[in-house]
Specification:
Layout lengths: L10 H12 L7 E4 L6 H8 L3 E5 L3 H12 L14 H9 L7 H6 L16 H19 L5 H17 L16 H4 L18 E4 L3 H4 L5 E6 L8 H4 L1 H8 L5 E2 L4 E2 L14 H11 L2 E9 L6 H9 L2 E11 L13 E11 L7
Helix pairs in contact: 3-7, 3-11, 6-7
Bound molecules: S-adenosylmethionine (SAM).
């Protein structure tokens, strides 16, 4: 998934920085990815055999992590009559019988003559998204899928829908004409399941990071908050609605969710510094790593000051190619500097 702030392309840099700073020599580590987004970082460290705590305020991100991080065994669909993956996917791929929330609110045909005509999906793809989403929920209600299978299917649907969305990448706006990739029929495909040691723990949460931090402890806390005022709730409202499928009130040309209790203080200039400091102060993790680039709304100096208060601090930096769909950007540079601010917090030893 093309995601603002995704760390997929700098996983090695993150890993090398953590190794260099924390000098970890075993994998008996609890790693927390508290702003998980697409789970790219959590997946990487799950593969390294760390125990993972994953969290994000957005529900679609929680769904994705429930699958990639928490699912740790083969998906079997034992309770369904199509009880193998191939049959389940064939069955769902051939469903196209329900016009639902996505069709009626986000296609040209479904919104015709309404106040706002929207073109996020073709008619066929929207019907397919609705049909599959409704069936997944029906299976869950009738206890025909287990919890891990439910999140697996939802993640497959989110990734498939995102590939055929008629946007420049985020859902803040749709394109006037249906682009080539959005014309293709939605392909609902099985995704990989990351199966790892049964001795490791995988915990996935859907909370505000500043609330969760008071409830957890571990060895490495990785922080990748939003850098600027561009909000994930509006940029990815479509994924939130497909994941929740809660018939929300929506508004305006873009059809964003009207009621929103997920406004992030990390996107608010006036709130961000204090919110960040509270997070660092309350963290019961020996090592804390913050990814932040040179265009973030907390000035570099303030991060240095805040983190240095709580232990030994060091910063690493690397040039990074800018996220290409970020066309609302203030600066038109092609590169940014990705900093990783590191802190060894003054607190009792945990033994890594
Ligand atoms: C820069 S992105 C993380 C990208 C992620 N590392 C990846 O590679 O996909 C920031 C994430 O923080 C989440 N977020 C914003 N405010 C939050 C908060 N207060 N608590 C928890 N998550 C939050 C957003 O929903 C978004 O997914």
């Amino acid at each position: 998934m093309n995601y603002i702030g995704s760390k997929l392309s700098i996983l090695n840099y993150i890993d090398n920085t953590i190794q260099d700073f924390a000098k970890i020599n075993n994998n008996n580590v609890t790693f927390c990815d508290i702003f998980a987004g697409t789970s790219s970082v959590g997946k990487y460290f799950k593969k390294k055999n760390y125990s993972i705590i994953s969290n994000d305020i957005q529900y679609y991100s929680y769904v994705i992590a429930k699958h990639y991080i928490e699912n740790n065994k083969k998906i079997e669909f034992k309770r369904l009559k199509q009880n193998n993956i191939t049959d389940v996917f064939e069955y769902l791929n051939n469903l196209n019988n329900k016009k639902g929330f996505i069709y009626y609110n986000y296609t040209m045909e479904g919104t015709e003559n309404q106040e706002y005509e929207r073109k996020y999906f073709t008619e066929e793809n929207a019907i397919k998204i609705d049909s599959i989403r409704i069936k997944i929920e029906e299976w869950k209600k009738n206890n025909l899928v287990e919890e891990n299978e439910y999140y697996y299917l939802l993640t497959c649907l989110l990734e498939a829908a995102d590939k055929v969305a008629n946007t420049a990448s985020v859902y803040e706006a749709f394109l006037k004409n249906i682009k080539k990739s959005a014309c293709k029929p939605l392909q609902f495909r099985p995704l990989e399941v990351l199966i790892n040691s049964e001795t490791k723990k995988y915990i996935v949460k859907n909370k505000d990071a500043n609330d969760l931090i008071k409830e957890i402890e571990g060895d490495i806390l990785y922080l990748d908050p939003p850098y600027n005022t561009r909000k994930y709730d509006t940029n990815y409202h479509m994924l939130e609605t497909i994941a929740l499928y809660d018939n929300p009130k929506i508004k305006g040309k873009t059809g964003v969710r009207a009621e929103n209790n997920k406004r992030s203080k990390y996107c608010m200039k006036k709130e961000v510094e204090q919110t960040f400091e509270e997070l660092i102060k309350n963290a019961k993790f020996k090592y804390i790593f913050l990814s932040y680039n040179d265009e973030g709304i907390i000035p570099f100096k303030r991060i240095e000051e805040i983190m240095s208060k709580y232990g030994s601090y060091k910063v690493y930096k690397q040039k990074h190619k800018r996220y290409k769909a970020d066309n609302k950007r203030r600066y038109l540079k092609n590169n940014t500097i990705e900093y990783i601010h590191c802190l060894k917090k003054n607190m009792p030893e945990r033994g890594i």
